[in-house]
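Slide 14.
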Amino acid sequence: MANEWGPLATLAGEWQGEGGLDTAYSHSQEKVLDTPYLEKATFKPFGPVDNGSQSLYGLDYHSAMWRGNEDIPFHTEVGYWLWDAATGEVMRCFVVPRGITTFAGGTAAADATEFTLSASAGHDTYSIGENKYLAQHASTRAYEVTITIDGPDTWSYHETTTLRMDQFPELFPHTDHNTLHRVA
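Slide 15: predicted structure.
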């Protein structure tokens, strides 16, 4: 793939990871659990998309995660990863069907094999939106993900979603990490 996609170029394709770990509060068990998960993700390249003089190249993506032998994913995302070569800006815009949208960003070199994206509630550019219920009971205050490209056929991520939850007096760090391998 051409280098118009900068550090995102390697991510184009279909991926699977079987070693994910989700550390989150379980409402059904009323405690924090470490839950292993399987993940599948697809990234399809597109571009350029022009905003005046800005030119973006991106990846349309969809990901889903399953615990154990579940038939229905417990988590899905749809969105875009974007690259602005002129500014070195990497962006990830995604929606989770719980009523959350996140627009995270950061900077990286075009040939970077590791980069970090972040967003926070109320930020002018990299921000988080959520429905009324979540805003009252489990509000996302910050999001950060570090992507590490381990080679042409493997990449990993470590992400922390910082929540203000009814169950905790302090902010709660919900974490996820996985290593994905190219399957197509």
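Speaker note: The chain has one domain: 3-182.
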